[in-house]
Write a structure and sequence with these properties.
This protein has about 425 residues and is an alpha/beta fold. It is about 45% helix and about 15% strand. The protein has 17 helices and 15 strands. Strands 6-9-10-11-12-13-14-15 form an 8-stranded parallel beta barrel, surrounded by 8 helices. Strands 3-2-1-4-5 form a 5-stranded parallel beta sheet, sandwiched between helices.
Length: about 425
């Protein structure tokens, strides 16, 4: 019987280091590539540029590869136990860093099964992370950006979205990451909020800023980022106008629009029943959803229905009735909104909705129930969490504090500790040097 050799890889960016490992593996036997799925990768690294099927097609055609199997987990252990290879080959760079624990697991399993771990020297001067950074400087295309939200929802337990109202916010969302053990925590995309767009211009949140004006600011974000964007479409306006909004957003590479089932002059939902919140009829809003879906050029653009029943003081049963109707009309997802600080009405809605629809994405905005963790929201059935206004809310008090200190002291020395050095600000912007 031929010996078998296992190699786990992402294979999103092929480079000489990976080919070297495959060539080395052919010396020991039949080469099996464990190709990590999007789901296996997404919580630990960025979502691959290429889909699993595209990556598999590339790897299957590399000389020396006998077969390709999916690796559904970040860890190699499940595949090693199932396939029982004679060898596993890996670069020696996993001796330190986030893969160190997985390395220990691999040695343990291979020793139990009588197999051997072969480590080959890491190829210096080239790696996929470095290449990824270089690719980011090139940017992305509207088509690639547009498709990425659906892929993220399929790959990650929770898709984390943060509000951006200018290019600087976009750069923070694009580049900030926190390493927790072997997981890399990032923001997966951006929320183009009508509230923060309006407020940053000194205007009320009553749809006073039109689509053309909002797109001017949105273009600033599009030019310096690559991550998906969800657009706050307020009520969507007249049905006849909404179809043009969908076409315009889709053409720019926006991944989704969220529209709320209210009519009349917009009043921010966080005022709840303190302001008159008039919902559209179910039939009227379903017509708007259908019109938006029919206006799309591609199936990748998402029209998500935002339900305001809980904001308007109606019961969860009303929200569920509307949700089922909106999904029936073609909504690609449901956003359920509430200003209740406990979050219990959101939980009740999500758990009931999941009994009927297991795969329709649920979107939440936990502004008032901010004590609820993403893990808890995921357990309720939530797919997307939008932090809808936090960047603007953080910026205003910081700017006010600095301005007040300058007035009080008649100079700027006292605000040094509140401000980044201007050199660091400039270094945030690509192409400044």
């Amino acid at each position: 019987m031929n010996k078998t050799v296992y190699i786990g890889m992402t294979a999103d960016i092929m480079h000489p280091g990976l080919i070297r490992i495959i060539n080395e593996a052919t010396k020991y036997g039949e080469v099996i590539i464990g190709l990590l799925t999007d789901k296996a990768i997404a919580e630990h690294k960025r979502l691959p540029y290429l889909t699993y099927d595209q990556r598999r097609e590339v790897v299957e055609n590399i000389k020396g590869v006998s077969r390709v199997v999916p690796q559904e987990e970040w860890s190699y252990v499940d595949n090693l136990k199932r396939l029982k290879p004679d060898y596993i080959i890996h670069g020696d760079d996993w001796k330190s860093g986030p893969l160190r624990e997985i390395r220990e697991q691999v040695f343990e399993v291979m020793n139990e099964q009588g197999g051997k771990v072969i480590e080959i020297p890491y190829t210096q001067g080239i790696n996929s992370s470095g290449l990824d950074k270089e690719i980011k400087t090139i940017g992305t295309t509207p088509e690639v950006r547009l498709k990425s939200l659906r892929r993220l929802i399929e790959a990650k337990p929770i898709v984390r979205i943060l509000e951006a109202h200018d290019g600087l916010c976009g750069l923070i969302i694009e580049n900030l990451e926190v390493q927790k053990g072997d997981k890399r925590e990032v923001f997966d995309g951006m929320w183009s909020s009508s509230l923060t767009d309006s407020t940053s211009k000194g205007k009320p949140d009553i749809e006073a800023v039109d689509l053309t004006t909002r797109l001017q600011d949105l273009n600033n974000i599009l030019e310096c980022t690559t991550k998906p964007i969800i657009f706050d479409g307020d009520t969507g306006g007249k049905i006849e106008h909404f179809v043009f909004t969908v076409r315009t957003l889709e053409r720019h590479g926006i991944s989704a629009v969220i529209i709320e089932d209210k009519v009349g002059l917009k009043k921010n939902s966080l005022f709840g029943t303190d302001a008159v919140q008039t919902q559209d009829t179910i039939e009227g809003f379903c017509d708007k959803i259908r019109a938006g879906k029919n206006a799309r050029v591609t199936d990748d653009f998402m029209v998500i229905a935002r339900i305001e029943s809980l904001i308007a003081g109606k019961p969860v049963s009303d929200a569920l009735e509307r949700a089922y109707a909106y999904v029936g009309a073609g909504a690609d997802g449901i956003m359920i909104h509430s200003k209740n600080k406990s979050g219990e009405d959101i939980r009740e809605f999500c758990e009931a909705f999941r009994q009927k629809y297991t795969h329709v994405p649920i979107v939440v905005v936990p502004t008032t129930y901010d004590h609820v963790t993403e893990a808890e929201l995921h357990s309720w059935g939530v797919n997307v969490v939008i932090y809808a206004n936090h960047m603007l809310r953080a910026a205003y008090p910081a700017m006010t504090r600095v301005a007040r200190a300058i007035l009080e002291n008649g100079r700027a020395q006292e605000v040094r500790d509140y401000c980044m050095p201007i050199k660091e600000i400039l270094e945030l912007i690509p192409g400044t040097k």
